[in-house]
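Help needed: design a sequence for this.
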């Protein structure tokens, strides 16, 4: 089969590699579409390498090239002999993470047992930690990692189940935290009345919709992003105000709308270190701060002193973690797929770039993703052209 292989930093090659051979409990999936994620960009650019050895040290790409891609949808090509609930031709989305249930362990680790599957003691991820990802014609995964699609979704839309799952997990984590303010608090004085989302990339836009359409949040919703196209999308998808932090005083505007107190809930989805410099002026005392974005390069940790002085509850999350359905499939992915199938979350506006060839991926990750027109890119493979 063909695959896009990351051989070195900033260097992808389309190679012929062996097609995976499945075990009795696995399925072989013919990849239909793969979303291109900021994590892919970090690995591609050499800013991160999550493929580590037993001592936690990154394994160089020259020694172990990687196949990226973890937002995956496809069609079952072959089901293992022990798989009874999936068959050839079924359309599926994939949970790229291997956990205790994926590995068929009789005794679950503490994390899998408590609905924190992405922190599994034996956790590994296709497309991120060295396991081959979706930028290939085929991928083999445990059958419980493949969730059947029941609605007529196009492949590019289905590929975004994984990032929506991350938003759901993050929101669940915030809801479970002991906080002074909560989005769905019964008491009016404890209810979140103003939210600021820093960053209107795919995550920020999904948070916007999730707050409005799933959590039924009716308070003030600010979204901050320097990109005009993203700001327009944020307004279209539910933001009250979409602010350009490069041309307006974000702190001043937030204070103007919140009576000088700041927001009760701030979602950091930009990965920009500058947000931390502004954060003390953006949040009210004992606010909730969700640290979702990654990166934050060039920021001195001393900025935390002014933030901590306000005693916010800092919440962090990663991945589409959660518990398991009765059949062993990941509950958060199932919830995400259902929201998209029921059209409660609109995916189409986020996808600005579609690619049709593995050869296009290098340009997508090196240049397209940094242009003003880009919001989300998806590689869509035509099954009719496969050898």
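Sure. Designed sequence:
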């Amino acid at each position: 089969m063909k695959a896009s292989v990351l051989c070195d930093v900033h260097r992808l090659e389309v190679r012929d590699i062996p097609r995976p051979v499945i075990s009795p409990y696995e399925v072989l999936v013919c990849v239909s579409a793969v979303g291109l994620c900021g994590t892919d960009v970090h690995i591609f650019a050499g800013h991160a390498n999550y493929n580590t050895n037993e001592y936690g040290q990154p394994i160089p790409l020259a020694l172990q090239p990687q196949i990226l891609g973890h937002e995956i949808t496809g069609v079952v090509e072959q089901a293992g002999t022990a798989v009874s609930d999936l068959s050839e031709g079924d359309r599926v989305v994939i949970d790229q993470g291997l956990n205790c249930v994926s590995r068929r362990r009789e005794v679950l680790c503490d994390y899998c047992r408590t609905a924190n599957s992405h922190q599994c003691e034996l956790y590994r991820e296709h497309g991120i930690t060295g396991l081959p990802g979706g930028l290939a014609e085929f991928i083999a995964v445990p059958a419980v990692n493949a969730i059947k699609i029941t609605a007529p979704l196009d492949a590019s839309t289905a590929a975004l189940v994984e990032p929506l799952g991350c938003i759901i997990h993050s929101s669940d984590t915030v809801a479970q935290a002991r906080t002074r303010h909560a989005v769905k608090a019964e008491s009016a004085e404890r209810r979140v009345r103003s939210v600021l989302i820093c960053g209107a990339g795919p995550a920020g836009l999904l948070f916007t919709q999730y707050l409005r359409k799933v959590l039924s949040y009716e308070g003030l919703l600010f979204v901050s992003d320097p990109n005009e196209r993203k700001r327009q999308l944020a307004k279209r998808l539910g933001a009250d105000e979409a602010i350009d932090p490069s041309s307006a005083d974000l702190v001043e505007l937030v204070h103007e709308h919140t009576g000088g107190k700041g927001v009760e809930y701030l979602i950091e989805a930009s990965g920009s270190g500058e947000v931390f410099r502004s954060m003390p002026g953006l949040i009210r005392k004992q606010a909730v701060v969700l640290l979702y974005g990654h990166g934050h390069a060039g920021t001195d940790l001393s900025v935390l002193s002014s933030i901590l002085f306000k005693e916010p509850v800092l919440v962090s999350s990663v991945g589409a973690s959660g518990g398991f359905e009765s059949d062993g499939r990941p509950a958060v992915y199932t919830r995400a797929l259902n929201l998209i199938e029921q059209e409660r979350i609109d995916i189409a506006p986020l996808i600005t770039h579609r690619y049709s060839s593995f050869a296009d991926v290098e340009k997508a990750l090196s240049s397209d993703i940094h242009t003003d027109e880009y919001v989300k890119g998806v590689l869509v493979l035509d099954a009719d052209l496969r050898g």
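The longest helix spans residues 161-176.
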